[in-house]
Amino acid sequence: MKLNDVTERGLVLLGCGKMGSAMLAGWLSGGIPPSSVWVIDPNPSDWLQSTGVHLNVALPKTPAVALIAVKPQMIGSALPALQALGDGETLFLSVAAGTLIASYEAVLGKTSPIIRAMPNTPAAIAKGITALIGNAVATQAQMELAESLLQAVGQTIRLETEAQMDAVTALSGSGPAYVFHLIETMAAAGVAQGLSPDLAMALAKATVSGAGQLAEAADEDPAQLRVNVTSPNGTTQAALEVLMDPSTGFPALLNRAIAAAANRSKELSNG
Predict the structure, then answer these.
(1) How far apart are the first and last CA of the chain?
(2) CATH code of 119's domain
(3) Which secondary-structure segment (H or E) carries 73?
(4) Are residues 42 and 161 in the same domain?
(5) Whole-prediction pTM value?
(6) Choosing a second label site near 231 at 20 to 30 A (CA), which of 56, 159, 195, 241?
(7) What CA–CA distances, in Å, run from 168 to 59, 96, 120, 133, 175?
(8) CA 152, CA 129: separation in Å to the nearest integer?
(9) Using alpha carbons only, how large is the chain's radius of gyration in Å?
(10) DSSP letter string over 5-45?
């Protein structure tokens, strides 16, 4: 199954909020014609209405893919719109957080190929990373098709088990918020040292963005990059002695934070 199948058989998008819109924009710019896309959304944006896709009309009988991009609390009311496509040749791909594959199988049928994915918000600028896992029915070709669609908004990575999704949610799904908070706190600390708020924020944003790009581009791992910028008895070492403190620094703090997010993800998934 390839992207040609999507063009020929069609793609259904259930929900077109921020994540759905980011993916749809990536697909259209990547060559999937609007005529091959059906969107179900009760409050379509002006942009969505301008794309030329089929909007809130009857669906094709056997689309190649039905992508579920509604908020988790809306799954119960929205999913029945796709029920008629279940137990057939349509691949269901969900980017809704906290909803187990078993929950989809209960509505769509256990013979439906279902892939659960967890993207993150940098998908809005095609810089996201999405982890995915399929049910027992999903084929290798369908996994590859899902990856092709998700790569419109960034990188993809496959999981070994669905149980890993809670850790993924805590690390990369919620992770952008941690980085945004880091930028906030770095800028505030700069202000405390005498910089203007605008200057401190500009420096903090560019520093975090540049360091992230360097970490991805460099051959060295982040630990070595940290060593590279740390002169003995210099300013960076003075800061790292605070940040790397075993009891009060980043290691302990982030371990607690990510564990709390993972535990909450498990609670939400289990209802």
Answers:
(1) 34
(2) 3.40.50.720
(3) none
(4) yes
(5) 0.91
(6) 195
(7) 33, 13, 10, 11, 9
(8) 10
(9) 21
(10) HHHHH-EEEE--SHHHHHHHHHHHHTT--GGGEEEE-SS--
* The CA-based dihedral angle spanning residues 249, 253, 254, 260, taken in that order and rounded to the nearest 10 degrees: 180
Q: Helix 175-192 to helix 197-217 angle, to the nearest 10 degrees?
A: 140
Domain stop point among 132, 165, 198: 165
AA identity, residue 41: D
Residues 147 and 229 reside in one and the same domain:
no
What's 58's DSSP letter?
A: P
Counting every residue written for the chain, the total comes to 271
pLDDT in tens, 127-173: 999 999 999 999 999 999 999 999 999 999 999 999 999 999 999 99
Tokens of 153: 């908004």
Q: Cα–Cα distances in Å, from 36 out to 45, 94, 100, 140, 209?
A: 19, 19, 28, 23, 36
Q: Are both 143 and 240 inside the same structural domain?
A: no
